[in-house]
Here is the input.
Amino acid sequence: MFFYGTLCHLPLLELVLAGEHYCTRPAMLPGHRVSWVKDQPFPTIEPDPSASAIGLLVEELGDTARARLDFYEGGFDYALKKVAVHPDGTAAPVTAQVYFPAPGLWTPGGPWSLDDWIAQWGEMTLEAAGEVMSYFGKISAQVVAERFPMIRTRAASRVRARASTTPTTVRADFGAGDIDVHASARPYAQFFTMEEQDLSFRRYSGEMSEVVNRAAFVGGDAVIVLPYDPIRDRVMLVEQFRMGPHIRGDPLPWTLEPIAGRIDAGETPESSARREAHEEAGLALDRLIALPHHYPSPGSNTEYFYTYIALCDLPDTAAGIGGAADEVEDIRSHVIPFARLMELVNSGEAACGPLVLCALWLALNRDGFRAGS
Here is the structure.
């Protein structure tokens, strides 16, 4: 097989093949050009008589190895075709198979760079591939493709978590080396997942605990944004139906909240905040002020919230109906005076933790914003 894109990254190839035997050598496919897919973190290949695709020839693959490769690539509308590639230092061409995308599936962008991809996307892709390949032999490649956006979102969250530099001035300086994982499972996986582990952890006495079974709901990192107009002293809230209150049995499962949403793979929290404000409320944000970022429910939930007050213009016409149609969102926005927000917090009508946090933080700091407006 000949690979021209991300599977030329040997750590990814090794993860997909999981110890199956194979041999590799550099090779070239004449008459083809490899380009970034426009607005996507992977390449595409297309015929071009004036170009050559540089890549990796992978040989001596067994049936299981091929099945694993087909599973990894198979849900994304690729088809195998035979081509003649030229290994480095060898005049004679070698017949190999290549995964070609369906015609017209992707729009080519600029020239592909494996090094640039590794620098920007390599770590996240390895995380995502680990989850993808854990489903090998359990679900179809097509189902994996449907779930892949959230798989990447979870992977990006784990990468951000590993890069955390929060201090340990009061809490114990315990880390991953103070946890022994004996077994792990994923008993539920759809849009969200549930992960379960048998583990022991370091006690404050210095000893390890007995082995216990623990589980966590796995979402993705999210942004929380409360828009505030310091000139008019107004905020914007959004309202929508929510599954959490509904499943709990709340008779009024439509909640008042800040603007919020998942941070897509490849986004920064700040760019996600601006995107979500535009999608949910058609709002353009000015300055973003970071509040304490936090875990809302660390006992059972992996979600991590990047929380902001956003200074912006909120005229009477800013309120309305919005949301992403492809996500079946139906979101109503409200523009209200700050004093009315605090009434909602005190009455319990604003029964959303991130909204309460934003409101209380703004109550402490809004005089400064108003003085500078």
